[in-house]
Every structure is written in structure tokens, then in C-alpha cells.
Amino acid sequence: MLTVHNHYLCAGPSQTVVMMNFTGRRIINFTGRRIINYTGKYIINFTRRRIINYTGKYIINFTGRWIINYTGKYIINFTGRWIINYTRKYIINFTGRWIINYTGKYIINFTGRWIINYTRKYIINFTGRRIINFTGRWIINFTGRWIINYTRKYIINFTGRRIINYTRKYIINFTGRWIINYTRKYIINFTGRWIINFTGRWIIHYTGRRIINFTRKYIINFTGRWIINFTGRWIINYTGRWIINFTGRWIINYTGRWIINYTGRWIIHYTGRRIINFGISPGTGLESPVLDRCKPTGGYLSRNRVGESCTR
Description:
Elements lengths: L1 E3 L2 E4 L6 E6 L3 E5 L2 E6 L2 E6 L2 E6 L3 E5 L2 E6 L2 E6 L2 E6 L3 E5 L2 E6 L2 E6 L2 E6 L3 E5 L2 E6 L2 E6 L2 E6 L3 E5 L2 E6 L2 E6 L2 E6 L3 E5 L2 E6 L2 E6 L2 E6 L2 E6 L2 E6 L2 E6 L2 E6 L2 E6 L2 E6 L2 E6 L2 E6 L11 E2 L8 E2 L11
Parallel strand pairs: 1-5, 2-6, 3-7, 4-8, 5-9, 6-10, 7-11, 8-12, 9-13, 10-14, 11-15, 12-16, 13-17, 14-18, 15-19, 16-20, 17-21, 18-22, 19-23, 20-24, 21-25, 22-26, 23-27, 24-28, 25-29, 26-30, 27-31, 28-32, 29-33, 30-34, 31-35
Antiparallel strand pairs: 36-37
């Protein structure tokens, strides 16, 4: 059992650049029973330039029983310039029983410049039972410049039972410039039993510039039993400039049992500029829908190729 009391202060080092390289093969096993309590005040500042490279092979297993409590006050600032590279194969298994409670006050600021590259194969399995409670007060700010690249194959499996509760006040701001690329094959399976409750108060602002590209094949399966409740108060503002491209191939299956309740109060504003493109990647053999000029009112044909003539 690990209990942390009092307060913890961590400031950035005096060097201009912090470089960390993880280049070997790592097998990490967490198989015992763990009770971890974070109950003090934490102020953590990351203010320098960091280059972090993960270039080995990683196998990480979490197979024990975990009880983790975050009940203090947390202020975390990421204000430097970050370059993070994940360039090998990762196998991560979460197969234990987890109880995680977030009941403190959290202020998290991401104000630096971020470049994150995921360039290898990732297999992530969540197969245990999880109870996660977000009952503290959260303020999260993403105000830096972000470039995130997902360029390999990803297999993510959620097969356990999950109970997730959001019951307090949440303020989340996305105000920086974002470039996100999803360029490989993704297989995501949600096959367990899920209970998700949104009963707190949410304020979410999207005010920056975003370019998001979905350019490969995506297979997403929802096959478990889902109970989702939206009973809090929501304020969501989309005021930035958005460019979103869907040029890959998508297969989405909803085969489980779903109960979704929207009983809260919602205020949603769309005031920015949005460009959204739905197409197909070249070379897949699937055609994009094109405008049917034969119809007086217009319309779309799903199989016509560009340049084909239409008959009356």
C-alpha cells in the first residue's frame, strides 16, 4: 500500500533540452494487489524542451487488483516544447480489477508545442472490471500547438465490465492549433458491459484551428450492453476553424443492447467555419458519391463515377 501525504512540488530542470531515449526491449508485469492514495497538494511544472524516444519493444501487463484514489489538489503545467516518438511494437494488457476514484480538484494546462508520432503496431487489451469515478472538479486547458500522427496498425479491445461516473463540474478548453492524422488501419472492439453516467456540469470550448484527417480503414465494433445517462448540464462551444477529412473506409457495427438517456440541459453553439469532406481513398475500388445533375432538385448517386453521363 502506497500512501502519499503533504504536498509535492516538482519544477523543470535547469538544462535547455531534456532528452530521454528508451531503446531496449521491455517486459513489465504488474501482478500484485495495489492500493494507492494521493491525498496531498501537487504542483508539477514541465517548462523545458523535451525529446522522448520509445524505440524498443514493450510488453506491459497489468493483471492484479488496483484501488487508486486521487483526493488532493493537483496543478499540472506543460509549457515547454515536446517531441515524443513511439516507433516500435507495443502490447499492453489491462486484465485486473480496477477501482479508480478522482475526487480532488484538478487544474491541468497544456500550453507548449507538441509533436507526437505513433509509427508502429499497437495492441492494447482492456479485459478486466473497472469502476472509475470522476467526482472532483476539473479544469483542463489545451492551448498549445499540437501535431499528432497515428501512422501504423492499431488493435484495441475493451472486453470487461466498466462503470464510469462523471458527477462534478468540468471545464475543458481546446484553444490551440491542432493537426491530427489517422493514416493506418484501426480495429477497435467494445464488447463488455458498460455503464456511463454524465451527471455533472460540463463547459467545453473548441476555439482553435483544427485539421483532422481520417485516411485509412477503420473497423469499430460495439457488441456489449451499454447504459449511458446524460443528466448533467452541458455548455459546448465550437467557435474555431475546422477542416475534417474522411477519406478512409469505415465499418461500424452496433450489435449490443443500448439504453441512452438525455435528461440534462444542453447549450451548444456552432459559430466557426467548418469544412467536412466525406470521400474514399484512391485505389480502394469504392467510388465517392457525386452530384446527379439529371435531377431538377439535385441529389446523390452512390455508384456513379465522375464524368459518367446520365440518362433521363
